[in-house]
Protein 1
Amino acid sequence: MEIRPNPLKSDAHVKERRGRRADPRLGRVLRGFAHFPRALPIGIFVAIALLTGVGVWAIEMAQKDSRRTELSQIATGASAALERRANANAAYLRSGAALLATQDDVPPSLFRTFVGQLRLDANFRGAEGIGWAARVDSDEIPEFEAKQVELGSIGFAVHPLPRPDQAYAVPVTNLQPLTDRNRRAIGFNMFSERTRRIAMLEAERLARPTASGRVVLVQEGSQDTAPGFLMYMPVFKIDPAGGRRLEGYVYSPFNAQDFVESALEGELPNRARIGLYDGPIAPDNLLAELSTGETGGESLTRQIAIGNRTFTMEVHSLKSSMLSDVAVIVLLSGLVVATLALAIAWLLTRQAAEARQVIGILEEQAAIRNSLTRELNHRVKNTLANVLSIVSLTRRRATSLDAFATSLDGRIRALSATHDLLTQSEWGTTPVKSVVEVEMAPYALGRDSTVEMDGPDVELAPNDALSLGLAIHELATNAAKFGALSVPGGKVTVDWDLVSDSLVRVRWKESGGPPVSETRPRGFGTELIEKIVAHELRNPVDLVFESTGVRCTMLIPVRTRSEFMIRAKQVGKTN
């Protein structure tokens, strides 16, 4: 014979082994998700969102480093371009100073020849030109003006004249190319203006090209126009004694905006703004600005040496969007993935919750079905035991088959009537009054005798109601045959009251019927009440046959539902 393992037992062992190996912390987590089903999808969404945020942050940090590196490269290239242009201009001024230092005089024709050889238009871009400013003592100004008019400078006049504390003037004598714009500067005494004077004295002291601070060129014709600066190179004459005397300055005027644009032509990318300042960064010190958009990103500064003067260059990256393109793509992708994961997890969690609810309902129904089966089995056994006892006692007391059948039929009908009451109450508690009424109904109507019932509302357990119904049936049957219900004018009184919270007393009393003989034989009804009913009620029954009528007192327990309903206990455990 083949022996097969019990699958239910095997599954139970597998589950038990798995339960022993399972991490208790995992169990707590799973129970937590079971109690809070929304926590899992929200947790998945938050986790993916956090990972996306970390990715976006990392991308932005990398992009920021890249922008800083790019900005540093731009600043390095721009500062080198500006210094190259300034050094080229300084070289022109040095060569001009070397040439003019060898001449006793600087007539306009000589200066024009010198500038023409420099090919100014091609190589000197960004400057207004190149000029010569002679040093003129204050007492020699009229003579100098007359000489310049004689050399072809129509209307030449030094302006403004030197102050009394100034020994000389440095008027613009020649300026090439001599455009209408540059003609405005001819005769201007540059030594009269503080910023220019400081630069010229510094150039004289160092004997090297020196740039002035922020000024507005005379050529501009207005103080509200774009600022600029000048670069001076002194020209000295060596006297026989070995000393040197300042003869004047070769200089170049610069419109700062033109200077920066020409120097950085092709150097400035589309992702930066460059500002050139005379000294510290401040709005009043701004010389020139190149920009292709609104700033707001990274920035850095560089110090630039132009003509022995330090300028500050500020480089700004252009204002970009909050996030780079790559970061935006990652962010959107992460949000899409997180949303899809949230939706999927939500659906799965919802299905799992619904499945758990269905399983719970099925388990509860199975528990109720099992408890009902056990309860029904219990009730059927009790009922069959009662029926067997009734059959046994009826058979012993019956004198004929008809008497046996009649007695058995009535008693089983009494059980059936009480069962109907219990079925209506779903085998819950049944009122005492209902049990008495259903058993006394055949005798209370259509007879000359009287049936009175009175008592409080008291609920009985199913088995106790069955026992009471059998007892009332036997007493009523006996009264109908031999007692108060067998004659007109007879009276049966059934009353009940609560002896305590857990005990009710039911009294049966007959009056007005035929006298009861004290020597009457004991019948089946007497034994049924005193044995079966008393046993079921767990209390003795006081049954007395008085000459005035039968009197019976029964004590019936009043029990709570949990004491007699198996289903109630089972449901209480599962809940």
Protein 2
Amino acid sequence: MKIFYKLMLIVCFINSFSTQAQHNYPQNYFRNPLNIPMQLAANFGAVRANHFHMGLDLRTNSKENLPVVAAADGYVSRIKVERYGFGNAVYITHPNGYTTVYAHLNKYFDRLDEYVKERQYKDEKWEQDMTFQPGQFPVTKGQLIALSGNTGGSAGPHLHFEIRDTKTEECLNPLLFGFAIPDSVAPIISGLYWYDRSFSTYEPGANGVAVKKAGNIYTTDLVTVNSPMISFAVKAVDKANQGFNLGVYQAELVMDGKLIYSFSIDKVSYDDTRYQNGCIDYTKFIRDKMNIQHLSVLPGMKLQNYSLPNLSGVINLQDKEVHHIEIILKDVNGNTSRLATKVQLNNNGNSISSTSTTIKPNEGKTMTTEHGEIVFSKNAVYDAVNFNMYEKPNAEENGVSNTIVLHHPYVPIHDKYTLKIKPNRKLTQQEKDKVVMLLDYGSDKDAVKGSWTGDWVQGQFNRLGTVQLIVDHSFPSVMTEWKDGALINTGTLRLKGNTKVGDIVSFRAELDGKWLRFARVKDYFVYTFDEKCPKGSGEHTLKVTTVNTAGNTNTQTLTFQR
């Protein structure tokens, strides 16, 4: 019977894996976009804040300005220039139905770089999102298209590389296209967790189980649970020979020889990438910086092409017998780790029930306090939440409302909710014009201008925390790294943006009366000296105008010599 049980497990696993792994992606069509060996700093599907990682992060030996080349013949179909996100990016459309994306670049190839620069000066706008026709910028496989960098949301020099389906714009797992990246290391499992599913994975939350390792086989002691409805999750990483913590490609959960859940991270669209928050223990990720992936489907998680249909992973223990559990993790190269454990129902514990303030997946909900109202859409939550909303006094300087407490930041919200707040005193029209809604979600703050309807101001957010109204009369500004009138011999001008509440939402610089192109690098504005301001050109006047979230405008006049 033991031999038969093991054979059944193997057959079940092979059949389910072959079902998921039937891809017709071209092998070896795309080349390495760098001229150094491909080494991964992050893979497709790795967990990020509020999204899956949608491509490969290729190491550039901690250097910038390495040559980036076209992965195959095609044409430049799009470029982006943005403060966060991709920074500077190139999109190349290929004749085989795929588009490759290259991001965090420092510079485009010369002809394209000049074209983008001309458009920026014509529009008097640094940020751009431009599309091109096939004949404008054709490229051949291996042709230089850019220099690597550290722009946008990058935290260090590297190249972000994606492969997309040109028609659907879905991002595909590049490792399924046959790139030669050595990998003989199986995923590493460091934790097992179970959840009481009688109400929600958020309440009471994760129950940790110690894991023991022998080779690529992991075990635990008998898992005793106090609820007949449970699910499992696993803490695991893939090292892939290179030391970085990569995401797990595929996982399967087998109970008593029967497959009950499986996921593989093959393709994801940017429209759906936020569903990652329903695939992980979000509370552990935000509060404890731990990446724990659910081996079950949360009721509000609607990510397509991720888990096998009709396999929820939710276990209904109808007896108090011991049940065999096996968790199988694989990377794209087939390196495999297995965790074997047993689960048994003990006496039933006290279950959590819904209340009048419960938000449920696939149902909208409106809740109110004396001075606040929140409206959730039917897509707001991935699992049930007994939502706690109340008011407390506002201790902020220039605060003009009570602080509205919206549960806590450790429960994710999928889409934007609408929040209305009434000030705690009568405001003049001038004060209303300078009110911002300020959300504090623990690790950072977010401010929006909001809109007024009578005595109520309305705004939208997609995180929970505490929200209050602030009257902001402060002015934004920029700080220089030189003394006024000084001679500048460096290659750049750097201005640091500063605002008390919110962000600088508009920046304009004019050199001697003409618009000057500054790039925005996080909180800095950077101009790289070029023909617009050559050496030996004498004294210059730089006029900088900034606007913050509240709409306050400040103009500063700076001088320097060149």
